[in-house]
Amino acid sequence: MEALRAWRASSNLLGFAASRAAKAAPAARPLRPHVRCCSPAAASTTKPPPPPPQDRRRRSASSSSSSTSDRESIRAIRLKKVEELRGKGYEPYAYKWDRTHTTKELQDGYTHLENGEVCADVAVSIAGRIVARRAFGKLVFMTVRDDSGTIQLYCEKDSLTEEQFEQLKTIIDIGDIIGANGSIKKTEKGELSVYVKNFEILTKSLLPLPDKYHGLTDVDKRYRQRYVDMIANPEVADVFRTRAKVVSEIRKTMESFGFIEVETPVLQGAAGGAEARPFITHHNSLQRDLYLRIATELHLKRMLVGGLEKVYEIGRIFRNEGISTRHNPEFTTIEMYEAYSDYESMMNLAEEIVTRCAMATHGKLRVDYQGTEISLERPWRRETMHSLVKEATGIDFNSFGEDLESAKNAARGIKTESNENISLQACSSVGHVLNEVFETVVESSLVQPTFVLDYPVEISPLAKPHRRYAGLTERFELFICGREIGNAFSELTDPIDQRGRFENQIKQHNAKRAAMTKEVKSTEDSSTITLFLKFEWIQARLFFPRNDERALPRHHQPQYCATVLY
């Protein structure tokens, strides 16, 4: 059986190309006003000494307090506007608005107009959020944005009632959602506009949008408040659109190959299918703890046991581990299993999925990523881990056999880009050393699509032994732009071999625990070790309930392969 895992569908397969649209802006530099005195008396005075530097936390707290105060004052003003609208019989939060066009449809349909030309016989109705506003006497210009783009509203005092024009100048704010009726006009400067005859406030915004010129630059806020990020940086929405196309194309591809989509439980009695720390919740009716799944693997395998030969699931995964702008505790994966197949078949399937998604989203197989052209044209490069490490370092790890110390000594002499030593403390075998060198030296250099083949058995407990080379497994990982996109292998179906590998893992963890216990000085550290080992034991018991010698379900499993896309 083979399992292909392509991580994180939200940014995924082709997320590396779409992510150009969502570059995180650097944190905004705090503004420091400079006061210049213009009077002669002031100019002749001695400059006072600068105030002592404030503590950074105090400055940050002061800035945050000031910002909060400003927002509250703006909110209070806008709430008064809401009350004023209702007092005049207007509902500031409308139920519905009938529109005839999107902004993109207008921009595409009336590009032929000459500057200054008006289509008075055309009636249009649009709706969107106000993102810019400019008033010049009897004229007010507003830029409205909807899901498809932007267009200008041309509001002339003579074309509106006196009350409506007054609303434009005193009630409407940037951030409000408005509906407008009128005709089409191209201004003398060539700006296509809706010549407004009537408008209605559909939603009155109570808080201001991020600054027009600087946008939303706080990286943490951009990830925590995606909706604000999408308002301030509309190009971010393109990433979501691209992702939707990718997921849709994956489904089409899988269906074309005869795969059946299934849904498996999110709440599970034991965390298994991967080596990760789970989230724990409590089921009140059952009076027991349950785990949010860390993989969809085990239930999908049982589907094959039940007789389905090609299955897949696009589902949410939860791992209670690190968090950053590139690591989310919950993420989406697609995992596929195919009977009577191996990792060679999965490589072909991976190429097919990615190239189809590229054509669906970009219309071509050559895409630009941060100034580097990525060619997705098939066939992709296929090299073993040993070959890539030897190519990068000149060291043939096959020559060390089981000599761990010689392998470590050779690895210590390798120079890395950061001039830091390769971490070898946790390496308990030559295979672990090989993998550490690969991850440190080789991985980041794999820019073009590359299948890395034949991983050591020590780091691949679920993969079948290689049919030709001892000590290796039939496993590959797919790398693009220096990142792991997929992980796959001919799945191990021998229950005796599987049990032996898990028992070896438990022995290794016990050895690590014994070594670490000697250095542990606090009860907290000791509890952490115990918790980690308890989780590993739970994972092992999932395959070996009680004293049952069989690692897999009672019925015979066919040869099969699995694919996971994240």
UniProtKB/TrEMBL annotation:
Residues 22-73 are annotated as: Disordered. Residues 499-526 form a coiled coil. Its EC number is 6.1.1.6. PROSITE patterns: AA_TRNA_LIGASE_II. It catalyses: tRNA(Lys) + L-lysine + ATP = L-lysyl-tRNA(Lys) + AMP + diphosphate. GO terms for biological process: lysyl-tRNA aminoacylation; plant ovule development. GO terms for cellular component: chloroplast; cytosol; mitochondrion. It is an enzyme of class 6 (ligase). One of its GO terms (molecular function) is tRNA binding. Residues 240-488 form the Aminoacyl-transfer RNA synthetases class-II family profile domain. Pfam families: tRNA-synt_2 (PF00152), tRNA_anti-codon (PF01336). Keywords: Aminoacyl-tRNA synthetase, ATP-binding, Coiled coil, Ligase, Metal-binding, Nucleotide-binding, Protein biosynthesis. It comes from the Eukaryota. Belongs to the class-II aminoacyl-tRNA synthetase family. PANTHER family: LYSINE--TRNA LIGASE, CHLOROPLASTIC_MITOCHONDRIAL, LYSYL-TRNA SYNTHETASE. This is Lysine--tRNA ligase.
